[in-house]
Fold:
Amino acid sequence: MREPGAVGSNRARSEDGIGKRELLAVSFGTSYPQSRERTIAAIEQTLEKAFPTYDLRRAFTSRVVISLTEKREGLTIDHTERALQRAVDNGVEELVVQPTHLLEGLEYQKLLEAVRERAGDFRRVAVGKPLLTSQEDVQGVARALIQAQAHLDDGETALVLMGHGTTARCNAVYPRFEQVLRALGGKNWFVGTVEADPGLEAVLERVREGQYRRVVLRPLMIVAGDHATNDMAGEEDSWKQAFALAGYEVLCQLQGLGELEEVRRIFVRHAQEAMEAPGL
Structure:
């Protein structure tokens, strides 16, 4: 039997019975249950094991995902505001919020604002950093990906990461991530985004400059959800189709970053730093 909160348990983690100390894991969310269990639930389980004196709870920032999850699975997950009110109602005194966001983008800023508005309801509140915040973070994730994909890096394969992209300044992380990959020996790696720069056309043009016969596509996202399934690996108007039409053999990997142990360790480190910081 799986322990409560283990991957595959299908637990919402949005319930009462919280003690005085809560660790709230906040994710954008996904309506793809298998990917959610391999990524978001896996991160939550790692956080729970690392901090046994905190009660771990879950919140999603996407109301659309929450609605779809409840409709399809009967699983009710708190939105951020509901999770904060639940903590107040349960008498939580110390609240540590650890987002599973990739960057300090718009979703993260909205989360900070929501938590700051309720900070006075708790004795102490702290918010951890997203995954790719420091140079140490970027290098750690880059090394983990290089190691995970080493068996595919044969010199004839372009290893392409597809990120979401953002209008926020932190979009600069994407080209920086590629630079770090290459500095660590990943000369066949490329990074692009769905909704910002560099986009698909820019990445495709750069891949064409090499002598590649195959392209491996993998999402640079915590979860392999809708963007990975449709924008990256879909049969129409997708990155897969674009590279196939350009003459490449294409392999799509529907694996979110949350499946990597190093990524989960980084979130633990960020939560620890939040616990040790002065708080909001």
In short: The chain has two domains: 21-131+259-276, 135-257. Strands lie at 21-27, 55-60, 94-99, 124-127, 157-163, 189-193, 214-219, 249-252.
